[in-house]
Every structure is written in C-alpha cells, then in structure tokens.
User: Fold this.
Amino acid sequence: MEHELKTIYEAQQLDTQIIEKEKKLVSAPKMIEAMDQEIEELKSKILKEKEIIDELEKERRKKEKELDIDKEKIKKYESKLYEVKTNKEYQALLKEIETAKVTNDKTEEDILILMEKIEELKKDFEHLSAQLKKSAKEFEQKKNKLLKEVETIDKDVRKLKEERDNFLSIVSKNLKATYRTLIEKRAGTAVVNLKNGVCLGCFMNIPPQLFIEATKNRQLILCPSCNRIFYFQEEFEEQ
Ligand SMILES: [Zn+2]
Assistant:
C-alpha cells in the first residue's frame, strides 16, 4: 500500500502542475481578448473624435461663408452711401452697415473659437492615433509571445498528463477512482499531507489515533472532514 500511496502522491504532484498550467491556457485567450477590446475602444474613440472635428469644420466653413456674404452686403451698403439723396436714407444705411459689422465681429469671434477647438481636438486626435499605433504594435508582440507560450504549455500539459497516467496505471482501480473523484470535487487536490495532527487539505484536526495511523502510510486513510487521501511525508512534519 505504501508504494501505491506514494505513486498516487506523485500523480498528485503532476496534477497540481497540470492544473496550474491549464489556468494559464484559460487566461491567455482572455488576455488576448482584453487587448483586442482595448484596441477597438481606442479606434472608436478616434473615430468619434474625427466625426466631431468634421462637424466643427463644417460649421466653421458655414460661418466663413456667412461672413463673406455679410462683407459683400457691407460693400454694397457702402457703395450705396454715395447714391442716396436724403440724410434720412443716409443715416438708415449707416445703421445697416453698423449692424452688419457687429454681426461680422460676432461671426469672426465664433470662427476663432471654432478654430481653437478644432486645433485642440486635432492635437488630441494625433495623440490618440499615435497611441493606437504604439498599442497595436505592442499588443501584436505580446499576442505572438502568448501564443508561443500557449503552444509550449500545451505540449507540457500533454507530457505531464502522460506521466500522470503512467503513475495511475499501476494503482488499483478503486484507488484510482477515488483519486479522480477527489481531483474533480476537491479543487484539484486529492492527496494531502498531515502536520501536527492537522489535515493540510482542509486544516481540520484529525483524531490522534487516526493521525498516527496515517503517518505510517500503511493503509488508505481519508480525511474525516474533506475525504482527501492522506500521504504522510516526514519533511513536512519537521518544518
Ligand atoms: Zn481534510
């Protein structure tokens, strides 16, 4: 029995490694997905910014057109000044010119504000575009590295599983079945050590007589609390 227990303990060591490696296999696609998402978010942010810039440019062109029309209007009024016959008409024209000029000043001011906003957004746009380029390159490298790692881990896992199965193949059918059930139901830990009368799987106290028996490794003893298989190792006790 002692040999069998030792064998199943070896299988446990391998399964612990397998589980750790499989965690990485699960996390890699998630990491890749997160990177892809970050790129997508950056892209949509840039696109939105471009839309706002285009919108503001359109508004600026509209205002400039308005300004041109109003400037023409003023010129027309000014040329009319020489044609009017009465002072009343003259005063009325002057008033029109004055009003048009006030409107133009306001339009010019609006255009300036728009240009400043556009300038600012363009800077931000450039900054985001550069960031996108940098991140895309960086992520591409990270992704390639991850995929290579996954490939290696995949190979390792296959090798470890083979080794584990070799160990399990020399264990009795019943013990193997118990082991597999526990691996499944006890978060990947089926075989545990004991220390100072405590199960190192669930950290519950073990009855003293059972503890003594378990440290002998002569028979299959399961923890009364978590049902895991005990395999005692001296060095653990000495620590
Ligand atoms: Zn336990």
The first strand starts at residue 191 and ends at 192. The pocket of zinc ion is lined by residues 199, 201-202, 204, 223, 225-226, 228 (CB under 6 Å).
